[in-house]
Amino acid sequence: MTSSVAINLPTSPNTSVTLVCYNNTITQLHITGNNHENLSTQSFFDAISAIFPSLKVLSLVSLALKGPLPASVLANTMNSLEILNISSNHFNGNIPFELSYMKNIQTLVFDHNNFTGNVPDWLGSLSSLTVLSFKNNSFDGILPFSLSRLVSLRVLDLSGNRLSGDVPVDYKNLTNLQVLNLENNQFGPSFPVLHHRLLVLSLRMNRFTNGIQGYDLHSFYQLQKLDLSSNEFNGPFPDYLFSLPSLSYLNISGNKFTGKLSTNVSCSDELVSVDLSFNRFTGDLPRCMQRNSVSYKGNCLSNVDKNEQHNVSFCHNEALAVMIKPHDQSGNGSSKSSNVKMVVASSVVGGVVIGGFAVFGVVLVVVRSGVFGGGCAATPQIRVLLQKVSPAYTVKMLTDASK
């Protein structure tokens, strides 16, 4: 018997629908719109759960879905889901507790919505979770300690919220964590204690005020991108970070780092972008950084263009405040604006396996209108991918899917 249930598709000409079948069963549904749809969220989820009872991957992006997330449908009739992406909609309210029953879930991507409240403590019970991305919502409060139990977690992105406080020290137990993005929140004042396997760490635009010289980062050999910009970090900067073997991007602009950088410090061959601007460094710019890919304006450096540095009186006062004798300088360098130049690193780590399913190739089908049922047969409106499913889902594919 063929299911007689049908679902009305969004009618926007820019809507794309992709179905993926495996062993004559639809296991993936991807629908992407342009946020001009007029859908009933509850009815839409009810229909999807009735027509596609065996979904492993559900991606509903930019469909203007609004209101609370219909968690009972997901938990009761779609509990086989492993990947759920509902980015760029208008969902609001708290993340419902019913999602804690989805024990097979590996990836949750709820970016660019209007979710509020705390990051739920029960997320720590989703032991298979490898990707958790709640960026650009309105979460507040502190981070729950329970997330430290997610030993399989590889990507944690909570950027663009109103979260505060220190990162729990138990997060150092996340030994598989590779990407941590906490930018644009209110975290602080202490630098987080994390495991050394990180590839990407972004803490920019928070309220970190303590120094980082007390933290041993020598063992972060795999770290590729480090962004500490637009905080109030102070004290000396550990310049051994310049020589971390995998580091390619470093941004510490817009802080209050002080002291001299060693002129003999070595820079990693991978280091291609460095932003030291708008701090309080004195002395000479290290030789390995005297190249175009380094931004150093708004400091008190002596072997660079003085018009790009703070004026002599400012540097003299700053040097006295930290008990450093400044180099002799002549002339009055013009005082530059203290506006911080933001350099955003879009960090995509290719090839990182984070669980779930992926398709060999992507087919986006433009659908103007139509209905579809639950079988694997193609229709004039929808093409169906009849392909084997890969046991890998890369960070790049996840990032592309959430755009």
Automatic annotation (TrEMBL):
Keyword field: Glycoprotein, Leucine-rich repeat, Membrane, Receptor, Repeat, Signal, Transmembrane, Transmembrane helix
Main location: membrane
A GO cellular component entry from the record: membrane
Signal recorded as keyword: yes
InterPro entries with a match to the protein in the record: Leu-rich_rpt, LRR_dom_sf
Bilayer topology: Single-pass type I membrane protein
Lineage: Eukaryota, Viridiplantae, Streptophyta, Embryophyta, Tracheophyta
Compartments where located: Membrane
Membrane-spanning intervals of the chain: 342-367
Gene3D superfamilies: Ribonuclease Inhibitor
Keyword set includes Membrane: yes
Protein name: Leucine-rich repeat-containing N-terminal plant-type domain-containing protein
